[in-house]
Amino acid sequence: MSQDPQRPISSNGDLIHSAVASLISVTKWGETTFVRMPSVFPGGSHVTVAISKSRGGFFVSDHGFSFREIESVGCERSFGRAASVIAEKLEINRDARRFFVEVSADELARAIVDIAAASWSIVDKVYSNLDDENDEEMEEALAGKLISLFGGKNVNIKGRAKGSSATDWKVSAIVRSGRKRTIFQAVGAHPASVYRTSTAFRDLALVPSPPGLVSVVKSTHDMGHLLGLLSQAGNVIEEGQPDDVFVRSVG
Q1: Would you say residue 87 lies in a domain?
Q2: Most buried of 42, 60, 161, 181 (most Cβ within 10 A)?
Q3: Using alpha carbons only, what angle is made at residue 161 by residues 194 and 144, rounded to the nearest 5 degrees?
Q4: Do 74 and 122 fall within a single domain?
Q5: Residue 6: pLDDT band by 50, 70, 90 thresholds?
Q6: Domain end point (choices 128, 157, 178)
Q7: How many other CB atoms are found less than 10 A from the CB of residue 156?
Q8: Cα–Cα distance for residue pair 119/92, rounded to 1 Å
Q9: Residues 118 and 139 in one domain
Q10: Structural domain total, the chain
Q11: Last residue of a domain, one of 70, 105, 128
Q12: What was the pLDDT predicted at 132?
């Protein structure tokens, strides 16, 4: 393909600069400047830090974005204790809904990094702890069923799958059939389990050559209104359904 003579050829330096610039963006809204960081929450949105002027220099916070991310999966009550541990470790402050610190101009860059790290860390911690004992029991039963149907060498129990956001999702099982992968996730009848699975499946569905996505629940009736959210993200089957239903979900 010939090069358009009117279009300058970008140097490697220009391409690198453009790539780096795309990782971070800065937006001003009133008296507050929002910095979108490269790190991504499990839900797919970017970690964002808010900066405004203060008497002592600059007020830097996560603007409550991490709290809202946790709230979206019904785990807002987990913020307090986890936030205290993270804030103490990073030597920053926190209140009921956000991380924050007031710094001088010389300390601004470090403050942005610390607030972003705190915001990402608490969401990652909460998402990692969403599974409860009932979900664990369901996972064990599901693992046994899949191994009996597809053979142990074709089933990766408690595997990991990378989504489009580069998040490494922990899943109940990955079944391989030829070149095709099908991810099975045991889902409890509570918001945290449903929201986590829905978020993970939406992320996994965006990768090139996406895997099959199957949620396994005890009863679709017991899921109530949460079933609609779950079925938007992939196939939903009950754990007690006949073997051929599981086999067809992989075919």
Answers
A1: yes
A2: 60
A3: 70
A4: yes
A5: low
A6: 128
A7: 18
A8: 11
A9: no
A10: 2
A11: 128
A12: 60
Residue 1: pLDDT over 50 = no
Written as six digits, the tokens of 173 are 């099982």
Q: Is the pLDDT of residue 10 over 70?
A: no
β-bridge pairing 212-217 and 32-40:
unpaired
Taking the CB of residue 33, how many other CB atoms lie within 10 A of it?
16
DSSP secondary structure string for all residues of 170-234: E-SEEEEETTEEEEEEE--SSHHHHHHHHHHHHHHTTSSSPPEEEEEES-HHHHTTHHHHHHHSS
Pair 143, 43 in one domain: no
What is the CATH number for 239? 3.40.1350.10
pTM: 0.58
- State whether residue 108 is helix, strand or coil: helix
Establish if 4 belongs to a structural domain: no
Same domain, 35 and 110: yes
Mark whether 124 and 138 lie in a shared domain: no
From start to end of 55-152, where are the E strands?
57-61, 93-94, 99-103
Grade residue 134 by pLDDT with cuts at 50, 70 and 90: low
- Cα(153)–Cα(112) distance, integer angstroms: 46
Residue 5, domain member (yes or no): no
Task: In whole angstroms, give the CA distance from residue 135 to residue 139.
Answer: 6
Closest by alpha carbon to 145, among 249, 220, 43?
Answer: 249
- Per-residue model confidence as pLDDT tens digits over 161-219: 999 988 899 999 999 998 899 999 999 887 778 888 998 999 999 999 999 999 999 99
